[in-house]
Amino acid sequence: MLHVLSHTSHLTIPHLKKSSTFANMKVLVTGGTGYIGSHTVVELQQKGFEVVIADNLVNSYRETVDRIAKITGKCPAFEHIDLTDKHLVDQIFAKYSDIQHIIHFAALKAVGESVQQPLKYYHNNINALINILESMRKYAVKNLVFSSSCTVYGQPDVLPVTETSPIQPALSPYGHTKQICEEIITNTTAISNFNAVLLRYFNPVGAHPSALIGEFPIGAPNNLMPCITQSAIGKRPELKVFGNDYNTPDGTAIRDYIHVVDLAQSHVAALERFIGEQNTKKLEIYNIGTGNGFSVLEIIHSFEKVSGKKLNYQIVERRAGDIEKIWADTSLANRELQWKAQSGIDEMMASAWRWEQALSAPNVLR
Ligand code: UD1
What we know:
Layout: E1 26-30, H1 35-46, E2 50-55, H2 63-72, E3 77-80, H3 86-95, E4 99-104, H4 111-116, H5 118-138, E5 143-149, H6 173-190, E6 195-201, E7 203-205, H7 224-233, E8 239-242, E9 254-255, E10 257-259, H8 260-275, E11 283-288, E12 294-295, H9 296-307, E13 313-316, H10 331-336, H11 345-360
Parallel strand pairs: 1-2, 1-4, 2-3, 4-5, 5-6, 6-11, 7-10, 8-13
Antiparallel strand pairs: 9-12
Helix pairs in contact: 1-2, 1-8, 3-5, 5-6, 7-11, 9-11
This protein binds uridine-diphosphate-N-acetylglucosamine (UD1).
């Protein structure tokens, strides 16, 4: 039995919105072939939105577009561009002059690499955002959803963490770019008629139930979920658990893991809020998690249960830069976005495992 450390089930959640269609509403999704981006494009298309993906494919595959089409029956428009090229960004806005909303995922996100190559991270993540904001102004596109991260909170003093918790100094250039981007958007909305939503993601895991899209780390993964599935399938000899001397019930670190499909749906909810003109401020910020904290060992045990695979893991030293524990207060997103994560941890593990198995089948993404 998994131990739920904190949960939001006592909250009164408004009825989730009924499915509706948004035919002819065009959304530019940057990074739309990436892990979270691809799942969001699926959810958007299933709601009837018209999607244009802009992606430079440095960390994703063109074939994902075909897979999105296979799931949804509709092929999104795809533009292979580098968003740090201002001229090319302008061209996208000129070509699709009916874009109404932007969801900006495209960013470099490897924490370790960002420490080694900080300028690459600052250049890419910040310039891409500035170019998008400048084109939004030029082409009078008003609504932006930005992928932020719970990394901005560092180790919070009080749990669960709310959106008003203090921002801590970033532990890596990657985390710093998220903070800087949040500030750029905050300052821009303050003096313009833009609306923006910052979604602070907790730890996305799992994959689409079709097992056609999922997380596809290029090179050795760092995040827990692909490390688990890769060691279960034999791609890596063992799983390392980073530290069991934390001040937590079983000594391993605690995170708020959220199914990527639930996370994707929060973006649709954010657009629905723009469309319904329900946003009360030009800049709104939401924690996107489940409200539940799970330790590394609880995740391992859930995975072993649903997969029937025994993981070969060993406890090693803490990983530098890791925080001890964090989980979200999601009540603001539940109330204002009328969104709530639905999947439990077992379902997250099962879908991640199906995806890893699908990756081992012939004709996988290359
Ligand atoms: C990391 C990033 C965060 C980013 C997030 C999503 C850091 C410090 N933070 O978060 O900025 O937004 O990924 O991409 O890297 N673990 C193991 N063994 C492993 C891998 C992980 O025990 O092989 C543990 C970690 O120590 C941690 C937990 O699993 O306690 C989750 O780790 P991970 O998936 O890397 O996410 P975060 O570190 O929370």
